[in-house]
Amino acid sequence: MNSDDGNRRLIDDVNLKIIDILNKDSSTPFVNIAKQIGVSDATIHIRVRRMISAGIINKFTISVDNGLLGYDHLAFMGINIEPGSADSIISDLSTIDEVLEIHEMHGRFDLLLKIRAKDLEQMRDIVENKVRKLPHILETELMTVLKSEKEEQMISLGNDIAFRDKMSMR
Predict the structure, then answer these.
(1) Is residue 78 located within the same domain as residue 137?
(2) CATH number for the domain that contains residue 137
(3) pTM to 2 decimals?
(4) Which of 14, 15, 87, 149 lies in the 20 to 30 Å Cα band around 106?
């Protein structure tokens, strides 16, 4: 049995509910989670600790309004690179603070970046002086976001929980 199989076994109904509650508000006290689920707060502590050590939960974080913080310019950048250079370029891109996400792709672009900046001048600086100057980059295309309607970090697990509940009733 590999570690992924063991980690999947940690994803039972109670853990799905814990994750779903923490996804909505990671500051929810364990006592409140326990009341919502119908278990002890000690159970929540133990289960969260196990999910952290198994790598299922990576970190607890906050969600902010980037516009109110002055970072209201969002763009995606498609990049095509020289074959065999992905690991090196991804490592270099990971050091750029304004690059929020890096995705390896199969299709029009080799890499897709999510970039956030304070204004167009900063966006230009990121593109021209930080990203495009990296070695092994063949082509870039910047796609500016005009308006974001929805931006989530994780899908809701409510459907998974409901499905499991439905299956357990059979």
Answers:
(1) yes
(2) 3.30.70.920
(3) 0.75
(4) 149
E strand or H helix at 93: helix 86-93
131 neighbors 77 (Cβ within 8 angstroms): yes
Number of independent structural domains in the chain: 2
Q: What is the pLDDT along the chain (170 residues), one digit of tens a residue?
A: 455 555 566 788 899 999 999 988 999 999 999 999 999 999 999 999 999 999 999 999 888 888 899 999 999 999 999 999 999 999 999 999 999 999 999 999 999 999 999 999 999 999 999 999 999 999 999 999 999 888 877 777 776 766 666 656 65
Please classify residue 19 by burial: count the beta carbons closer than 10 Å to its beta carbon, then call 0-12 exposed, 13-18 middle and 19+ buried.
buried
Domain assignment of residue 107, yes or no: yes
The answer to the question of residue 9 being in a domain is yes
